Amino acid sequence: MSYKAIWSGDYYNEGMNAQNAIFDKLGEECGVFGVWGHPDAAQLCYYGLHALQHRGQESAGICTNDEGAFHYFRGMGLVKEVFNRDNLQQLAGSGAIAHVRYSTAGESKLENAQPLVFKYRDGDLAIATNGNIVNAPEIKQKLEKSGSIFQSTSDTEVLAHLIARSRHTDLVEAAKEALSQLTGAFAFLILTKDKLIAACDPNGFRPFAVARMGGVYVFASETCAFDAVGASYLRDVQPGELLVLDRENNLHEDSFTTPQRHAVCAMEYVYFARPDSDINGINIHAARKKMGKRLALEAFVDADVVTGVPDSSISAAIGFSEQTGIPYELGLIKNRYTGRTFIQPSQQLREQSVKMKLSAVRKVVEGKRVVMIDDSIVRGTTSLRIVNLLREAGATEVHVRISSPPFMNPCFYGIDTPTRKELIASTHSLEEIRKMINADSLYFLSQEGMLESISFMPLGVNGGCCTACFDNSYPS
Asked: Are residue 50 and residue 169 in the same domain, yes or no?
């Protein structure tokens, strides 16, 4: 079955969560972190989750292995809201997996917070994942018909049921058989009484890497988490690969399927990942700066000031400034302490929440021709609000430059996107969008420029990046 066919079945959860609907940004996926062989694994997970907080703010959880006994704690909210000294001290053990969640499949409730923990015939089993299992509904339906009872609506639980029902008595072999039945984008961490297992989907959609600190192994969705705990990056987990750490701390390299064309999500480089992370050896900040420089070459405009929409667009704005010689200034400031004020009952209050979240610096933009750099336009609503913020602060011209191609197609690999009809670039021309966001000019970075900036070729040539959201070319 092709991925296009799966999408046409309207499986994907339409709509974004409240925050992203208001701020017109794509929803982050999730973040996973794992430790094996450290006497205070939970504390390392706590620091690792802090570094990965940008990937999910809905819930957080940690599960530890204390010589075969599992301890776990999960809660709704940010890492600092969920964990404290007392509950962390209860999470004893030298092995652990941890998770920050942004829901793209399953409801937003505690039952879906990860890691999910299960009673298994050979001891406890805990699972954490970043991504989306596209064929989860189909598998779940078959399992329920044969007697399985699900405790959550998270698609991650499907893997546990497949492992439990495997004909293999060896857990690693059971995990390989279960993983081979999944379709989608995923990075899994599986904790057992005597092993830590890591697995990446056959296309490598989601970033996933392994590091060491002495004799301790660490896994994370992004390398910035390694820096937070003082671990040294070893390598990325490869597409279709299964890595197993045993009781003696030996790392076994295996695979659960034949790897397909590498297709890491292009939006990781454009928007999702932290600037201090590296994915497949490519630094995110450096890639975004290149996007900004290429954008300047493709769409120069005479102006007085360049500013980036915080935070993910700042690197591209710096690159645009360096290439053109137009000074970069902090023309927009993000308030990091607004909390959850975006959950408001009226449009008027939601508009006020946007102003609380972002403000223009009048002394920087007043009387100036401003180039506003952003990483993407989804619905266009936030672009309009930001352009108007700059105009209200006295900008005489606002030229919008986007450091990625037009976002025209939905994603079902763990990124929360609107339906195609809600994507402004899918239903409107460039000139129409320019008028709708009240900009003096508008330009999107070419797909060729984006891919060259991140040193990848498009899918179908030499592989490397998934660009389906831009060109409708879903991996198959």
From this structure: yes
CB neighbour list of residue 188: distance below 8 Å, 6 or more residues apart? 32, 127, 128, 129, 159, 179, 197, 198, 199, 200
Q: Report the candidate in 403, 206, 199 with the shortest Cα–Cα distance to residue 294.
A: 403
The region of weakest confidence among 128-137, 160-169, 331-340, 418-427 is 331-340
* Residues sharing a CB contact under 8 Å with residue 49, sequence separation 6 or more, in sequence order: 31, 33, 60, 62, 79, 98, 99, 100, 225
Give the global pTM: 0.88
Question: What value does the mean pLDDT of the chain take?
Answer: 87
Cα 201 to Cα 93, 95, 175, 279, 453, distances in angstroms: 28, 23, 13, 16, 25
Q: Which domain holds residue 211?
A: 3-260
CA proximity to 221, closest of 322, 333, 114: 114
Alpha-carbon distance of 244 to 232, in angstroms, equals 19
State the CATH number of the domain containing residue 464: 3.40.50.2020
> Which element (helix H / strand E) includes 63?
strand 59-66
Pairing of strands 216-220, 31-36: antiparallel
- Tell whether 72 and 189 lie within a shared domain: yes
Give the Cα separation of 137 and 144 in Å (integer): 10
Count: domains in the chain: 2
Dihedral sign computed on CA atoms, order 216, 279, 475, 184 = positive
If asked whether residues 105 and 213 sit together in one domain, one would say: yes
Do 20 and 99 share a structural domain?
yes
Candidates 373, 359, 383, 362; CA nearest to 432 is 383
Give catalytic residue positions: 30
Dihedral of alpha carbons 16, 17, 23, 29, sign = negative
How many residues make up the chain in this entry?
476
Quote the tokens at residue 305. 């000031």
Render 218-278 in DSSP notation, one character per residue.
EEESSTHHHHHHTPEEEEEPPTTEEEEE-TT--EEEEESS-----EEEHHIIIIIS-TT-E
* Strand, helix or coil for residue 469: helix
Which pLDDT score is estimated for 16? 34
Cα distances (Å, whole numbers) of residue 458 to 181, 413, 465, 468: 27, 18, 6, 10
> Quick one: 150 and 99 in the same domain?
yes
What H or E segment, with its residue span, contains residue 451? helix 447-453
Domain shared by 228 and 294, yes or no: no
The pair phi, psi for residue 399, each rounded to 5°, is -105, 120
* Residues 380, 439 within the same domain: yes
Tens of pLDDT, residue by residue over 226-260, are: 999 999 999 999 999 999 999 999 999 999 999 88
Please check whether residue 271 lies inside any domain of the structure.
no
Q: Which helix (H) or strand (E) holds 65?
A: strand 59-66
